[in-house]
Amino acid sequence: MLKSLDLIIIFVYLALTIGIGIWISKKASKNLDSYFLGSKAVPWYILGISNASGMFDISGTMWLVYLIFVYGLKGAWIPWMWPVFNQIFLMVYLSSWVRRSNVLTGAEWITTRFGDKKGGKLAHISVVIFALMSVTGFLAYSFEGIGKFAAEFLPWDLAPHTYGLIITLLTSLYVIKGGMFSVVFTEVLQFFIMTISSFAIGIIAMIKVSPDMLANAIPDGWKTIWFGWKLDLDWTGILDSVNTKIQQDEYSFFTIIMMMMLFKGILVSLAGPAPNYDMQRVLATRSPKEASKMSGLVSLVLFFPRYMMIGGLAVLALAFFLPELRAMGPNVDFEMILPYAIKNFLPVGLVGLLIAGLLAAFMSTYAATVNAAPAYIVNDIYKKYINPNASDKKYIRLSYIASAAIIILGILFGYAAQSVNYWTMWIVSALWGGYAASNVLKWYWWRLNGYGYFWGMAGGMLCAACISLISPSNNPLFAFPIILAVSTLGCIIGSLLTEPDDEEVLKNFYTRVRPWGFWGPVKKKVMAENPSFKPNKDFKRDMFNIIIGIIWQTTLVVLPIYIIIREKTSIINGIVILVITSFILKKNWYNKLED
């Protein structure tokens, strides 16, 4: 049971967040641009912190604590299935490409690529459908996590889904009314609370858990990030149920899993940002250069503090909670490691601050996700196809209604959710599998037209939905190649059986966005009309920066864990790698950014 001080901290924080959100909401009611993009007036570093806060979600934190607890430092690789390094692709070049479009939503961006004829409209509709499916999945994922978490701490005897409903509705008070302004400025407050809490947990873990205590609680190989053909983590005699869990996760042949995650991760990253809150932050920046800097800041400010918390909680649970976990027998709910660790090992006051921070993390992710959804309903359906001449006030009112509708849908799916881990795997593997092919080819192959894009997206989304219905108990990662193959065939066949997109649309897109890739025929026509045009020749530099950036980002993930477990050699190596990669990125990426 929480102490009075902890409860006071939690409720004061919730009141403060909702109050600030509602107070700021007056700025959001001017028009759609102010509601969804903050009038492109928010500084890039504020948007970067806001974006990082939106990714510091409670469901993801529960999942990551479980990964580090079970897989040790090797658990740092598993989020590559998301993939976490998509932020590096955004940082290096894709954020600037997206921002050059100067549109309101990811679906509206499709018009700049495929035009506004029948094929372009079909492509546009398919992105709207994907965006709404994605948002609904994320809301269900968040709803499931916050309910399980709150039921462990808050003093009333309510079911997890009831807690999820209450906290969701409280968050909705300021999100629906406030739009981007409310979301961004409350997220900045939430981020600083989470950062303070994260470092505090890491320090407590270092004080309470000695290297010898940890050594007695982990199997051989837990402390190393490197792996062989098989995982080779044997928990027998320590916590036997973990061996069963590893088998259920199907990660035993770790090299094969890593190859699949890397292949999928690169494809999804090449596709650019999904049409969610991440893309909204990119479109809300003032310029392409600021968009790139914003995406770079996300990795810098997010991963080190977040993994101080994740590593600290996992280490505390390993040192002190194994007897209770053994007593659960084969039915251990590993997603509950995070709340158990907080409840048992942190002092009064810090518990309240951390719970407030984790509630903040939920509210950040939830708010950002909800803010992205009505843009697609109002701007990309109602305004584009139904009533293009309505007043700004009417569009804003419809945005309120759309937000409420998508919240209700997310709650309903949340009630049907199996687990946080299931929703995580379905979103990042099945749904993103249906997204990858169409959205890779749209950037790099001129011949992909609106029809091909539509059939690729439709085939991929249909496969993803079928996977969740036919085999909900299997790891959706293994379905990714099938979903990708169906989607790719839809793209190629749909494009080659129909005429290319309008020549003027292709030339305008190529001139404005300046992508590299297979754009030869379009490039030739643009250069003939405008000999002074300079095509993008940065492919090799961008790929080099991405490799360096992924090493840099991975170091930001593992370094805080090594600090907590006091592996001195690994700490020194990590600092050296971080300094070298930061220097290279400063010289070869940051200094060469342009608008």
Q: Could you please describe the fold and organization of this structure?
A:
It is a single chain. This protein is mainly alpha-helical. The chain has a single domain, classed as Up-down Bundle (Sodium/glucose cotransporter), CATH 1.20.1730. It has helices spanning 4-24, 32-37, 44-55, 58-71, 86-99, 106-114, 118-153, 160-208, 211-215, 240-249, 254-270, 277-284, 288-320, 322-327, 337-345, 350-386, 392-415, 420-444, 450-470, 480-496, 503-513, 520-529, 539-565, 568-588. Helix 7 crosses helix 8. The radius of gyration is 23 Å and the shape is globular.
Name the helix and strand elements from N-terminus to C-terminus, one letter apiece.
HHHHHHHHHHHHHHHHHHHHHHHH
Radius of gyration: 23 Å
Q: Give the class from helix and strand content and strand pairing.
A: mainly alpha
User: Into which percentage range does the β-strand content fall?
Assistant: under 5%
- The fold-level CATH name is Sodium/glucose cotransporter
Q: Distance N terminus to C terminus?
A: 54 Å
Major beta sheet, specifics? none
In helices, the fraction of residues equals over 70%
Q: What is the name of the CATH class? A: Mainly Alpha
CATH architecture: Up-down Bundle
Are there runs of 5+ residues with pLDDT below 50, and where?
none
Number of domains: 1
Shape: globular
What is the helix tally?
Answer: 24
User: What is the oligomeric state here?
Assistant: single chain
Determine the mean pLDDT.
84
